[in-house]
Amino acid sequence: MTANVKDKAAIVGIANTEFSKNSGRSELQLAAEAVAGALEDAGLKPSDVDGMTTFTMDNTDEIELARAVGIGDLSFYSRVPHGGGAATGLIHQAAMAVASGMAETIVCYRSLNGRSGHRYSSGVSGNLLTADAIHWGWYMPYGLVTPASWVAMYTQRYMHLTNCTHDSLFEVAHTMREYAATNPAALFYDQRFDRAEYDAQKKIVDPFRLYDCCLESDGASAVIITTTERAKDLRQPGVVVKGVGQAAAANMESMTSFYRDEIAAIPSMDIAASKAYEQSGLTPDDIDAAVIYDAFTPIVLWQLESWGFCKHGEAHDFVMDGALRPGGRLPTNTHGGQLSEAYIHGVNGIVEAARLVRKTSVNQPDKEVNHVLVTSGVGVPTGGALLGSMDTL
Amino acid sequence: MSIDTRDFSNVAVGDTLPPREVPITSALIVGGALASRDFTTVHHDKKAAQKGGLPDIFMNILTSNGLMGSYVTNWAGPDSCTKKIDLKLGAPNLPGFIMTLTGEVKAIDEASGTVDIEVLGENNVWGMHMQGTVRVQLPKGAEA
Amino acid sequence: MNPEETKEFEQKIHAFVGRENGPPKKGKDAVNEPMIRQWAEVMGDESPVYTDKETAKNTTKGGIIAPPSMLQAWSMEGYPMAGSPAVDVQRSLHNVFDENGFTGVLGTNTSTEFFRDLKPGDEVTYHTVIESISEQKSTARGIGYFIETVTQFTDQNGERVGKQVFRVLKFIPADAPAEASSVADDSPAVPTRIAAPRGHDNGWWWEAADKGKVLIQRCKSCQTLRHPPRPMCGECQSVEWDSIESTLDGEIFSFTVLHYPKVPGYDYPLCCAVISLAEGTRIVANVVGIDTEEVKIGMKVKGKVEQVDEKTMLPQFYPVAGGQ
């Protein structure tokens, strides 16, 4: 059965706060600023909002945020689990709510003091008292406690089975940094590196050195989603949701699905991709640019395979052809990604994907951009969305 | 104890110093603080250290300096002359940790007869405690 | 602090830049042998030029000298630092920080130059100037500012004997422990590994590990093995299970070597691997007894349950000789 969401919903407002290492204010305030910014961008009033969605991991309560911004009655609210895997889950929730008529105008937000507050790189600890604790218990005593170490386990296997080397990891890191270098909003604006500098960084976990790992940052991002009908009358050109998939493949663990027959792949994203393509009627050839979740360099490679831009195990060759670069087959993470713009858990990526469709990215590709892919974090249950311009209706 | 001084001509870039393991104890931290006349409370009073955000008393910077200096002069010998110690502090040294000192000759200067030794002090819990460079002048030409 | 308060605070602290800490001041003690000997004892200084008069005479030093790294010690205020330290300019600056929540203090850098060896009888005079204060920084310890001071050391003849640049961080402690332990405990706190929380579905596995065994859960109904343990069999939905003991013969399916961050209680570089056991299930564990650079996918390993620290029993896997 194919979900009936195609062309029903559109992103009509987008905003980020500034990104920093120390925002100097609460996550609630950051969220409020991003939401108010996105409403302003859309030309909507807070009272137009009747739905909200965010990450289960977000510390900012919906109703506190609604009260802060002046949003009135709500008839829809939801949260998506699994860390960065939730990013496009917000689009998934909002599109379903809009398509079903449960709500008309939905705010999707994510706010975190990810650098000055709790840092994910510090890893999980024994202080967890959730059901999740038992799961982490299989890894913590051995020291496998950080996101980098979990992703490294898949990466070593992937590099063992394919021709992937540090060359393609560098290509991903370097491409993102070059985009960030020309994006004034990026934390790494105007800060380039070369291969020698990349190789000279400290080892984090094999095979990752520092520049293979994303930033930790403070900031918030928000997008407003409403019906395509309503989008026609608003301030900005709408960005239409063509298809959106969300999936947790069989035999899944959060970040540590080490017990599948093969672990050099991300089957959850394969499923999400096929759902999104099916709903939209689009194929990989239709996609002009992408924002691919890049907490670590190799996860970009695996997602390119999941979304069919190359065959499984062949992403190394695909990126070494310069595919992700400005003039390449699939300009990717034109904002600099989470590696070099900021780590707002992928929601800053949704903002950039909307900009690419609006043709307002600071690194807008020269070619015509009609369809853009945006994805969520992997290793956890994940997802992705295909976005298109109003001309595609 | 060696009372021989290393001769400048016998030292080359890339030479390494034998590693030295320093068990960090409350006695060393307090003893070092007193020997350097540093009575700042965080170096002898656990509660004061905790108020400052650390779990226990921690080594003062003068002791770190002293350990780095002695590590190099023990190697260089009594006639050597220490010219400069550049020290960067990293994670604190707390009781119960073990710090390992390692050193490598990074540069030699023929004209002044000086040798730059890069020293790393790493503890087994939090990693880099200190890293730095010690410049010592060594006597030249035993034949003289 | 709101932005206006921050601005006001920064104006206050920056007013200190360029000020001298006080007029040049003579150290409380002349350079002397007892203090040198005490220093050498603690630091493990073996050189006879610090402690052995006779041997020192026959060196180029011509007699006892003070260890160069001791230079700053001749200028320290001493015991009053613990109670009511003199309120000099630097102290007033620190007080401004303390009043604004920047109570943490940590020396971060020193750069000391030595112009001549100091000998017993030398009298050291020191003169400190507050050289600079950084902009606000976000550090691993917390938000703070770096203060740099420069001290010139001279002797009784007014000759320069050394110079020291000293950098400290004044910071807001990021996570001060809520309650200081009131129990006097001088035993070294050796950190242990993070323990697995034990619940209904996994406690039995860890209890077996405590006794030196690695068990694999088995469905009583269809005999399917499963790890990590779960309450229900995914094949036949039976909740009846028992277990078998693994021989711990295995092969490395994937692995990684961890370098950073270094979590207390673990030794780095630290190898963690996914290991395919002969029984057909997989387990995550450490690979030890081998240079981490030598670990390869496909390598044959053999495990045993070992005590890895004071509190923890864990399976650890060793390479099998010739087992590539």
Describe it.
The complex is a heterotrimer of chains A (393), B (144) and C (324). Chain A has 393 residues and is of the alpha/beta class. Chain A has a single domain, classed as Peroxisomal Thiolase, Chain A, domain 1. Chain A has 13 helices and eleven strands. A nine-stranded mixed sheet of chain A has the order 3-2-4-7-1-8-11-10-9, with helices on both faces. In chain A, helix 2 links the parallel strand 2 and strand 3. In chain A, helix 1 (27-42) crosses helix 2. Chain A is globular. The model of chain A has no long low-confidence stretch (mean pLDDT 94). Chain B has 144 residues and is α+β, with helices and mostly antiparallel strands. Chain B has a single domain (14-137), classed as Thiol Ester Dehydrase, Chain A. In chain B, 22% of the residues lie in helices and 35% in strands. Chain B has helices at 26-35, 46-51, 61-76; strands at residues 16-23, 81-89, 98-109, 114-123, 127-137. A five-stranded antiparallel sheet of chain B has the order 1-3-4-5-2, covered by helices on one side. The longest helix of chain B is centred in the middle third of the chain and has 16 residues, at 61-76. In chain C, the strands form three sheets. In chain C, strands 1, 2, 3, 4, 5 and 6 form a six-stranded antiparallel sheet that branches. A five-stranded mixed beta barrel of chain C has the order 10-11-12-14-13. In chain C, strand 11 and strand 12 form a beta hairpin. The radius of gyration of chain C is 30 Å and the shape is elongated. Residues 176-188 of chain C have low confidence and may be disordered. The chains are: A alpha/beta (393), B alpha+beta (144), C alpha+beta (324). Strand 2 of chain B pairs antiparallel with strand 2 (104-114) of chain C, so a sheet runs across the interface.
